[in-house]
Design brief:
Blueprint: H1 3-31, H2 33-37, H3 39-51, H4 54-59, H5 71-97, H6 99-104, H7 107-112, H8 117-150, H9 158-183, H10 192-212, H11 224-227, H12 230-235, H13 242-265
Helix pairs in contact: 1-5, 1-8, 5-8, 5-9, 5-10, 8-9, 8-13, 9-10, 9-13
Keywords: Membrane, Transmembrane, Transmembrane helix
Protein name: ABC-2 type transport system permease protein
Organism: Clostridium amylolyticum
């Protein structure tokens, strides 16, 4: 069995776990839509939201009024929490990829094979990207099923939903490559997940601060999640600011290059 297949097999169990968790979250949110969309409930929610201070509303992605009776607007609001989970998974996936071989002792076996470090990184990146792509496709299909269940007749949603998921995938790729960069630096696997979580939540909090404090508005550029917030993507009809796309692609490119060069020069624990 080649290295790519081995990697896919090793990650499959954790993939299933994350799919079950995220599908459960999506199911919970979508199951609440019928009650949230009723006229009486929508009015109650709107009244409650108006009573919340603006700064607090911004921290929950409610800077503008959300029509919870509209399926796309409702999903766009709840999708910010799906985005958080997806980005955490992507960061953990990348951060554990390279360092686990050293900690588990399997790097000695790999190093004994006629395979270069460059190929090791390449196969690791290809296999984890495959897992991440499958993960997103399944969540997208589950969401489509729920939309078909709850949408009004002749309700157009597919393209807008696709744009939101594409945006979320972009943010995941940023954290995935940053996770790989961490994996090429960290000395042991026990630090991988905590460091990946720390990286995500620090950048996420910077995004919140940029939303509620005008003087810190520039910090939004330090928070990849802010680039692709589903409610903003929906409001912009699928468009993401070009500056955000450029920054994201730059981070992905630089982090990938760093991973290859750093891992090639790293003293491996054999």
């Amino acid at each position: 069995m080649n290295m790519y297949k081995v990697e896919i097999k090793n990650m499959f169990k954790s993939l299933l776990t994350w799919i079950i968790v995220m599908v459960g979250i999506i199911s919970l949110f979508m199951a609440m839509f019928p009650s949230m969309s009723s006229s009486g409930m929508s009015e109650i929610i709107r009244t409650k939201m108006d009573a919340i201070p603006e700064s607090m509303r911004k921290s929950f992605g409610l800077s503008e009024a959300v029509d919870f009776s509209d399926l796309l607007q409702y999903f766009a609001y709840t999708a910010q929490y799906i985005l958080i989970g997806n980005c955490i998974y992507a960061a953990i996936l990348g951060a554990n990829s390279l360092i686990k071989e050293e900690s588990e002792g399997t790097i000695e076996f790999l190093y004994a094979q006629p395979i270069s470090r460059t190929k090791i990184v390449s196969v690791k990146m290809l296999s984890t990207f495959t897992i991440l792509y499958i993960f997103n496709i399944i969540l997208f299909l589950v969401t489509v099923i729920f939309f078909e269940m709850f949408k009004p007749s002749a309700y157009e949603y597919f393209m807008q939903l696709t744009y939101m998921y594409k945006g979320m995938l972009l943010a995941q790729l940023v954290f995935w490559t940053l996770g790989f960069a961490l994996s090429a630096i960290l000395p042991k696997v026990s630090l991988a997940t905590p460091t990946a979580l720390g990286l995500f939540f620090i950048t996420y909090m910077l995004g919140i601060f940029s939303s509620i404090i005008d003087k810190l508005h520039w910090m939004r550029y330090l928070s990849p999640v802010e680039y692709v917030m589903p409610s903003n993507v929906l409001k912009a009809h699928g468009n993401i600011e070009s500056s955000y796309i450029i920054i994201s692609l730059t981070i992905i490119f630089v982090a990938t290059l760093f991973t290859f060069f750093r891992y090639k020069a790293k003293d491996l624990k054999i």
